[in-house]
Specification:
Oligomer: single chain
Number of domains: 2
Distance between the termini: 107 Å
CATH superfamily of the largest domain: P-loop containing nucleotide triphosphate hydrolases
CATH topology of the largest domain: Rossmann fold
CATH class of the largest domain: Alpha Beta
Largest sheet: 9 strands, mixed
CATH architecture of the largest domain: 3-Layer(aba) Sandwich
Structural class: alpha/beta
Shape: elongated
Strand order of the largest sheet: 6-5-7-8-4-9-10-11-12
Number of strands: 21
């Protein structure tokens, strides 16, 4: 009897075996093999194996249609308009309120006040409707204690401490709320996906399920998200693409001021900023926060100057203080707080070369009042006037503000939104403003405000001190 030997052949049909994939936990970059450093964000040790299911060739059945396609002119939009949350500053950022079915992601550093703010919003809406607040990081007792502290107790506010996605969807089906709040999306995990909570696959699955539930039930959802060490939203980049609105909570740990700005908004502008005050009784909105950034000194002090910055479309007055002191060090100090260090270095170079000030052998300290952060070029002139006043020990004219970008040639350039800045300065009681030459029309100058136009930094210093006819700065040494 003879035997026939056959050689095994590779199957010609059926799905191919899934190849392992690797994903960066910081930015969501994917690769076919492991690497020690991410090729997108250049972070070390963040590449992990993606254990999510890899889809192979398959057929898709036609799902049942929700309804026939209709003309866009016949669609009723009254039920899809934004509804106020009761917090005016948050409504300003969102574009009028919460849109039914919209998913809002609120991200920020730990302790910045994200949970406290959304708990306050949930309690306001729970006065007239049912709100489901799901916490995956705290117990219901801890949330109740915070609600008592900020006065956010409402009978319609339902609490659930869950970290499983199936349980969260079960509470959503049983409560049938008008608003869903999840704290946080990184703390919820799905049993259908492998990996620890907060991983790339888990965040992608949890976010997709919550977004689908919100769209299906036509209810808004507020998701709290963590941030990485560089301030970006933790998790894959697709998380920000899936949600409708992405809001960032900013604020210094040592300051009470909190700013909320929208980096993505499908229903409103992205240039609005909401201002809040973090207190022991909760997060309070600040419709007029300009007074927080001005000192209460009643006499004129050399080395101070006030400017008006634009946070989105909102003008905010900020006071810049500078101190110039002799030093025995070979490398003088340049210390900033709330001011961009690179712009300080540029302004110092311009004052030394174009303004005639000797600053190479002196320490320079620049700071803002109240924890404000001034980074726009329009504050260059105020920073230069503060430094010049401290170097010469000469105070500026009382009730003076300054706007302008300082160029490397010493010229003072125009800035955007000058009429709004002047109107805000006059509203706060300022009577004199130093602005770039030929940058404002007479009709845009408010009543009671004297506008002084400066073409260069030397002229701006003279105008700020009320001595336009005399140059009190030191002359430039030709040997330098």
């Amino acid at each position: 009897m003879s035997t026939i030997t056959t050689r095994a052949t590779r199957p010609t049909s059926g799905p191919r075996p899934a190849r392992p994939g690797f994903t960066c936990t910081e930015c969501g970059w994917t690769a076919s093999k492991w690497a020690g450093r991410c090729g997108e964000c250049q972070a070390w040790g963040t590449i992990v194996e993606d254990t999510g299911p890899v889809a192979g060739p398959r057929t898709v059945a036609t799902p049942p249609q929700r309804g026939p396609a209709r003309s866009i002119t016949s669609i009723d939009v009254e039920n899809s308009r934004a509804r106020p949350t009761g917090v005016g500053e948050l409504d300003r950022v969102l574009g009028g309120g919460l849109v039914p079915g919209a998913v809002v992601l609120l991200a920020g550093e730990p302790g910045v006040g994200k949970s406290t703010l959304l708990l306050d919003v949930a309690s306001r809406i729970a006065e007239s409707a049912t709100v489901l607040y799901v916490t995956g990081e705290e117990s219901v007792g801890q949330v109740r204690l915070r609600a008592e502290r900020i006065g956010a107790l409402a009978p319609g506010l339902m609490l659930a401490a869950e970290s499983d996605l199936g349980a969260v969807l079960g509470h959503l089906a049983s409560c049938n709320p008008a608003l869903l709040v999840v704290d946080s999306v990184q703390a919820i995990a799905s049993a259908q996906v492998e990996g620890a909570p907060g991983g790339v696959s888990q965040i992608r699955e949890v976010a997709a399920a919550l977004i689908a539930a919100a769209k299906e039930r036509d209810i808004p959802a507020l998701l709290i998200g963590h941030v990485t060490k560089d301030g970006s939203v933790a998790g894959p980049r697709t998380l920000e693409h899936l949600v409708d609105v992405v809001c960032q909570v900013e604020g210094d740990r040592h300051s009470r001021l909190r700013l909320i700005r929208a980096t993505k908004n499908r229903y409103g502008p992205t240039d609005e900023v909401g201002c809040f005050d973090l207190t022991d009784t909760g997060v309070l909105e600040l419709p007029d926060p300009s007074g927080l950034f001005l000192s209460t000194t009643t006499h004129d002090v050399p080395g101070t100057c006030v400017t008006v910055t634009l946070e989105g479309r909102r003008p905010l007055a900020a006071e810049i203080q500078a101190l110039v002191a002799p030093t025995m060090l070979s490398n003088p100090r340049r210390t900033t707080s709330g001011v961009d260090s690179s712009r300080l270095a540029m302004v110092l170079a311009v004052l030394q070369r174009r303004g005639g000030l000797l600053l190479a052998d002196k320490d320079v300290y620049a700071s803002t009042v109240g924890g404000a952060r001034v980074v726009e070029p329009a504050a260059d002139l105020a920073l230069a006037l503060a430094i010049a006043g401290s170097a010469d020990d000469v105070a500026a004219t009382p009730h003076l503000v300054a706007f302008g970008e300082v160029g490397l040639a010493g010229e003072v350039r125009g800035v955007l939104g000058l009429p709004r800045r002047l109107a805000e300065a006059r509203r706060l009681g300022f009577t004199t403003a130093v602005v770039p030459a030929d940058s404002v029309a007479p009709r845009d100058v408010p009543d009671g405000l004297t506008v002084l136009e400066a073409r260069d930094i030397r002229q701006a210093v003279r105008l700020a001190r009320g001595q336009a006819g005399r140059d009190i700065t030191r002359p430039i040494d030709p040997s330098r």
